[in-house]
Amino acid sequence: MSIPRPTIISIQIFFFCIFVIFVPQLLQGQIPKHARIITTSKEANQTWVEGNNITIVPKIQALETEISVFLDTTKLFQEFIGIGAAITDASAETYAKVSKQTQVKLIDAFYHPTNGLGYTIIRTNMNSCDFSSGSYTYIDEGDKDLKSFSIEHDKQFKLPLIQAAQKNIGESMKLYISPWSPPAFMKDNKNMLQGGKLLPSYYQPWANYYIKYIQALEKEGIPVWGLSVQNEPMAIQKWESCIYTAAEERDFLKTYLGPTLYAAGMQSKKVIVWDHNRDMIVQRAGTILADPEAASYVWGVGYHWYENWSGGEQMYDNLGLVNQLYPNKKLFFTEGCKESFKPNKYNDWSFGEFYAKAMIKDFNNGVCGFTDWNVFLDETGGPNHVGNFCFAPVHVDTKTNEIYYTNAYSYIGHFSRYIKQGARRITCSTSRSAIMATAFKNLDGSIVVVVMNQGETALDYQIQLGSLSVPIKMPPHAIQTIIF
Fold this sequence. Notes:
Elements: H1 5-27, E1 34-41, E2 46-50, E3 54-55, E4 57-58, E5 67-79, E6 82-86, H2 89-97, H3 100-111, E7 121-126, H4 152-156, H5 158-169, E8 174-179, H6 203-219, E9 226-228, H7 246-263, E10 270-277, H8 281-289, H9 292-295, E11 300-304, H10 316-325, E12 330-335, H11 350-364, E13 367-374, E14 377-378, E15 394-396, E16 403-405, H12 407-416, E17 424-430, E18 435-441, E19 447-453, E20 459-465, E21 468-474, E22 478-483
Parallel strand pairs: 5-20, 6-7, 6-13, 7-8, 8-9, 9-10, 10-11, 11-12, 12-13, 14-15
Antiparallel strand pairs: 1-2, 1-3, 1-22, 4-21, 5-17, 15-16, 17-18, 18-19, 19-22, 20-21
Helix pairs in contact: 2-5, 3-5, 6-7, 7-8, 8-10, 11-12
């Protein structure tokens, strides 16, 4: 049987394309043969399972009927700063109550670069917050000249935990400080709790307070990378809180805090504004960053994820808008947790999916780093001096030393263990809403793709990079990291 000439020509063209596209790349070693895959799934109840390496195959075009993740490494976006969590008084007091063996397990779980999550970012509270055992400041009441300033309070619990983490992280550690409230005498309500405002007569003493705290930490060998101006400046809380309008925060930074940092030789510290929810981030960023003098002090805009008070979707698109409007400023996640602690919810699979969805969507909107709230908490979801008990990815029973890992811990690890500081986000899109994905290129050239399936059914999908394809099977309610 003879083959029709048009068919022969088509076959010749096909093999010519294969030769032109792939042979030069193969000769230069540009085409990896396999992709590494790591899976966490509800179905198997397993975490970070290394699958068999997947063979990468040549493929000119994905089919319309396929579920695909498309990558393009020629377009590079924001630099990845890192992932971490807050070391609060609550985390530190929990750490102090458990055995030395349990302390080692906790430090390794979060800060070991390969066996744990590989965290590099630490946030800590300046003065007390809700996750403290009581309200405190570093000065005597009424001491506007800060002559009594001392961080002896922090030396008991917080500093030992920070220093233990620091030993694992090393020079890549990025620690930043956030205040919940100035001392009561500096505020119009004479109370560290229940909101209130910083009195204008104390703007300069309060600016000096940041300098004192940074100097005190660095005297203890803890370098401070940055600071936020105020935690949740639009929330009147039953715990430590202080209210600033956008204009007030702008003017405090422009006239007092920014110049004071520069005068102290701290112009390299990263100043984060807003430090509240995505809902008002566009208005807040616009008010502050539209002022060139105020903007000159700003490294980035911080945000939390608590905006969906009445339910509904998180305001992810607001981040993308800020990124478009102010591309020279960073977007940085400074706090988030699952609230309303209940110990029988440790195994709620939705926790991890909530974290991963936020991380994927936020990274794809230009976010450069992620800071979880309390790194770990005790068996009560605290300690907390106002009864605002919450979840952390890990809880420790301080009576039995038992450690409880929620799947949020596992899901965060699919990002933090594999995306490295200095990585750049690359173009990543999906052809179906059944999955969501983000992707980064590490400094060593490796590509890291994180894909999540929140659905009830297993899926077949493929990752398409140029004329290469990685075919993958994914269980229901699962997250995968693919590296090649």
